[in-house]
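Batch job 17 of 40 flagged for manual review because the log was empty.
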Amino acid sequence: MDPVGIPNLWKDESAKVPVLLRSTAGVAQAGILRTAVTAKYACGNDTALQSFAPDADQWTELGEGHYMMTFPSTVPDAEGPFAYQVTTTATGNDTFVGMSRVELRTEDRVWDEATSGHAVAGSAGKAVADAGAVKYTAMAAIRYNHSGTAACVLAWLHANGVIVTAPTSARVIAYDEDDNVVIDVTDSAPDSYGFFLSLVNPLTLTALKAHRVRVIIVNAGVTYESGEAFITFN
């Protein structure tokens, strides 16, 4: 949902991304081994999904259907949009889809600008200011079944790249290409990791459509909102 989203990934750096595996009935899938998943991704200007098979140290089960998958530094190798999906070999399980962006770290960009002579003073000053501020980013990821009739919506809040463990509430609104609202869910009970999970059923999604997503999360009385997007694959 970064579109579905996860926080921004850094170019040429390894990245841990969340994966939520559930059945089409919404049941958490526990004990899924790395050898039982098929992962694909697209980075930057890729025109097709690339296959990825996680190693033992790149796949961690967190519980309640949550997993962490680590992409090596060779995967986020270009700035721009980043999409990934994870499916299991077990029959009746849904595909998890996550999206984000790959960016160059501020300090790396400042160095590039300094060595190239582009906006050295201004960029360095902005980098110093940004380094001292806490940046909150509302994130979301949407997993839907193959028929597009049900979905799980995952939302969370980052503070300088760290998950906020006790936000107050989260609302996720998804619009199709005709500006129709296809998902609108609100949750006020995050799990112990700080993730909000909402089940949407019934649901009507059309294959091969782009959707824009609003993610609205309240934490300590302050509202944070960001835009995400996702594309229906099936």
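Reviewer: the log was empty due to a logging misconfiguration, but the result itself is present. Residues 117-121 have pLDDT under 50 and may be disordered. Unflagging and moving on to job 18.
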